[in-house]
Amino acid sequence: MTLHALPNELLLNIAEFLDSQSSINAFARINHHCNNLLNSFLYNYNVQHHYGDALHWAAARGQLETARESLRQGANIEAIDPTTNRRPLFEASYQGHANIVALLVANSANVNATNGRGGMEQAITIAVSRNRECVLRVLLESGIDPNLATSKSGEHLLHIAAYRRVQSRLAVTKVLVEAGADLEALSPSSQTALQIACLHDPEVVRYLIESGANTDVRRPGGITVLHLAAIQGKINIVEVLWDLGFDINTKENCGHSVLYSACSNGRLEVAKFLLDRGAKINSRTLSGFTPLSAAVSWESNVFGGTGGEHGGITAFLLERGADPNKASHTSTTPLHLAVRSEHGLCKLLLQHGVDPESRTKTGITPLHEAARSGSLESARTLLAANVNVQSKDKDKNTPLHFAARRYHPELVELLLQAGADPMAKNRHGKLAADVAMEGIIGRSNEKRARLRTVLDHLEASSSLQHK
């Protein structure tokens, strides 16, 4: 008698004696009749001996019939896969299988459950973060609140949608807004979805604004969404905001224009865009600083004035007509800021007509600043421009006093060679050597060694003057 001629009861008895799922599966594949007869038995075996992992397999691969039969045979709809640590609903949502999600929801899967042991993410949050539009619709139709604050971060679903990782989340953003998501809800960091999107996704920015999001929302300090995009160099978002009518000359509470904020962070492409559309190149902050000052400070700090991919922002502003002699309310000019680094920016500003002898309200010249900062090349550049090496601040300190106080032996030597007087006294009657000695107690051995060299230079120069 051939196998297919055996009674069904006997075939089932044979299957029951098989000791593995793979053996039962192989037996079921012998012929069409065995497959039909043993299919339910196989799923039941999977439920009894393999915690119903066929349901997880189906959820991961979008196999609707497999999922349906697993549930029919009693698979635990909330079982956690030990490998992925995911429930079937979370797995299906993660993979974007809306048909499986709908089946699981219809069979009373817990839509609010988190992913596995100790997990904090829910199926709906993963649907949003992975831009699973159809999955999101199914979950919202199950009754989940579109203004749900997630258990993982406390952010609303719309906040998650406003972020952009690999791809835009515009599709899920639209679904949430259409479902009634609150455009003005604040995240745990007190940001609206629009503020978040302005750092991530131009498409979402446009959609949120066109859907009625408050465009005048500001961060502490009065920082607008346009400032946010400019600071981060998001030129595509800056373009969208300008296209939607944002004022490119708007200022935050400290008087920083959007252009100033862009220059403060070296955002050359944004600066070009703003100036091409009418941004005021010499606008001042409440402290009187200009975008040029911001650009110089940024380049000095980041590149040391040596240039680089972003190093042309100062040169660009000067070429576009920025005034290098616009000083702050303390009379600090861009040159005072430039000499804190090496000579590249200093030379550039001098080429564009900056006053090398400009003074702050306390009488500090750029040479004083270079001496204080230890910027040897900047000092050389200024001396080559014939600045007064004996200039004095309001306390009658010369650049030599500044260099000596900061233990810069190379600068002390340079200033002495340029004619600095080591016997010049400040308002308190102190020589450069005297101010160098102040506060030396407790200094490191390295600073003590530098001090010794400074004093040697000063002593040698003083001796020459007395001959």
From TrEMBL:
<feature type="repeat" description="ANK">
    <location>
        <begin position="84"/>
        <end position="116"/>
    </location>
</feature>
<feature type="repeat" description="ANK">
    <location>
        <begin position="362"/>
        <end position="394"/>
    </location>
</feature>
<feature type="domain" description="F-box">
    <location>
        <begin position="1"/>
        <end position="48"/>
    </location>
</feature>
<feature type="repeat" description="ANK">
    <location>
        <begin position="395"/>
        <end position="427"/>
    </location>
</feature>
<feature type="repeat" description="ANK">
    <location>
        <begin position="153"/>
        <end position="188"/>
    </location>
</feature>
<keyword id="KW-0040">ANK repeat</keyword>
<feature type="repeat" description="ANK">
    <location>
        <begin position="254"/>
        <end position="286"/>
    </location>
</feature>
<feature type="repeat" description="ANK">
    <location>
        <begin position="221"/>
        <end position="253"/>
    </location>
</feature>
<dbReference type="InterPro" id="IPR036770">
    <property type="entry name" value="Ankyrin_rpt-contain_sf"/>
</dbReference>
<dbReference type="GO" id="GO:0005737">
    <property type="term" value="C:cytoplasm"/>
</dbReference>
<protein>
    <submittedName>
        <fullName>Ankyrin 2-3/unc44</fullName>
    </submittedName>
</protein>
<dbReference type="Pfam" id="PF12796">
    <property type="entry name" value="Ank_2"/>
</dbReference>
<dbReference type="InterPro" id="IPR001810">
    <property type="entry name" value="F-box_dom"/>
</dbReference>
<feature type="repeat" description="ANK">
    <location>
        <begin position="50"/>
        <end position="82"/>
    </location>
</feature>
<keyword id="KW-0677">Repeat</keyword>
<dbReference type="Pfam" id="PF13637">
    <property type="entry name" value="Ank_4"/>
</dbReference>
<dbReference type="InterPro" id="IPR002110">
    <property type="entry name" value="Ankyrin_rpt"/>
</dbReference>
